[in-house]
Design brief:
single chain; 21 helices; 0% strand
């Protein structure tokens, strides 16, 4: 009888809080449909990890084994990038290469968040860099950097990165509206549908990006290489079955195990600390700075252009693909139902995907 009651007698209020947080994530996934593929496994993983005397974590626990095999080795983030690369069509970006600048401008939040984290005195420079990567709006890059530089902060960094990615539809709209006028949000843009991108260019693009980014930031080759390899599989035209497998089976399976494994890092003894709240706060500010940086850059560019760009495109420069592009298009149609800027938003969004990986690689190279 005592053995049956041992779990109940061992539970702490901290574990109860973490179980409630896990239930909240599951609620947001099911009821609000906020990235259910991520939040639902994360929430359930948090519950499993905080049940007293849980056999799912610790020596021999399957979640601990998944963490050691997939997170500590950086395998899961790499596999996710292969899947994401296979999903991405770089044609909208190649039709309008100027979108690369918006993808770069929207990485401002990474360095601002890094500066804020370092200025608190609670984190060293490598930990601050890992926290700053949250601003990439790129979960796998955040995990990759945290595993290298701040394994003790992997839980809160991962949760902040993925949670805020899921909440992009809530975070971005008020910032966009605060920084733009109704007239600016109604600006129409040339869709540039007449521009043609040859098959040769689509095949060469991932190879060239890998070479350039790899030479600039060798520590980031694992990330950008995996992303571009996935895209090369897609564009080669000779690996259609593998491309479909990467986009579907690989993406779904790795997202599932990655989500529940991240959730298992939300152990009460490690998660309920003042530094966790600080990381979550800085992470949110990083997303705000990213969005604001992209919008303000677009407004700055408009000063010198005769044909104005819709400044909301700058907000799509973050790496949350394709959520941010959808948010921008939704706001544009709320202002003018006939305004269609999704292609430009997608172009900026995939540029942000490249920009975040390169920014993460630069930090890894500088501090590694």
């Amino acid at each position: 009888m005592e053995n049956l009651l041992e779990g109940l007698l061992s539970i702490t209020w901290q574990q109860v809080v973490m179980i409630l947080i896990g239930l909240l994530l599951i609620y947001l996934a099911i009821k609000k449909k906020y990235e259910p593929m991520l939040l639902l496994p994360m929430g359930f993983g948090a519950i499993l990890a905080n049940i007293p005397l849980s056999s799912a974590v610790g020596d021999g626990g399957f979640l601990t084994l998944l963490k050691e095999a997939g997170i500590s080795t950086e395998l899961f983030p790499i596999l996710i990038f292969i899947a994401v690369g296979a999903m991405i069509d770089f044609s909208p970006l190649l039709k309008q290469p100027v979108m690369l600048f918006f993808g770069a401008a929207a990485q401002f939040g990474i360095f601002m968040a890094m500066f804020l984290a370092a200025s608190t005195g609670a984190f060293d420079i490598k930990e601050s860099a890992s926290i700053g990567i949250i601003g990439a709006a790129d979960g796998p890059t955040s995990i990759y950097a945290a595993t290298r530089f701040a394994p003790n902060l992997l839980g809160p960094i991962s949760v902040a990165a993925y949670s805020y990615m899921a909440l992009v539809p809530m975070i971005q709209p008020p910032i966009i509206r605060a920084l733009t006028t109704k007239k600016e949000r109604q600006i129409r843009m040339d869709a540039d549908y007449d521009a043609k991108v040859s098959k040769k260019v689509l095949i060469l693009f991932p190879i060239v990006v890998t070479l350039i980014a790899g030479i600039i930031a060798p520590e980031g080759v694992g990330l950008v290489g995996a992303l571009m390899f996935g895209n090369l599989i897609r564009e080669s035209g000779v690996l259609e079955r593998l491309s479909q497998a990467a986009q579907n089976e690989l993406a779904n399976l790795v997202t599932l195990v990655l989500g529940i494994t991240i959730g298992s890092t939300m152990v009460a003894s490690e998660f309920l600390k003042p530094t966790t709240l600080l990381i979550l706060g800085i992470g949110l500010l990083a997303f705000v700075f990213d969005t604001a940086g992209g919008v303000l850059f677009a407004k700055l560019v408009n000063i010198f252009l005769k044909r104005k760009v819709n400044p909301m495109i700058g907000a799509a420069g973050i790496s949350a693909f394709p959520m941010s592009a959808r948010v921008v298009q939704k706001i544009a149609q709320e202002e003018d139902p006939t305004n269609f800027i999704l292609m430009q938003a997608i172009g900026a969004n995939v540029a942000g995907q490249i920009g975040s990986v390169i920014a993460g690689g630069v930090l890894l190279s500088l501090l590694g």
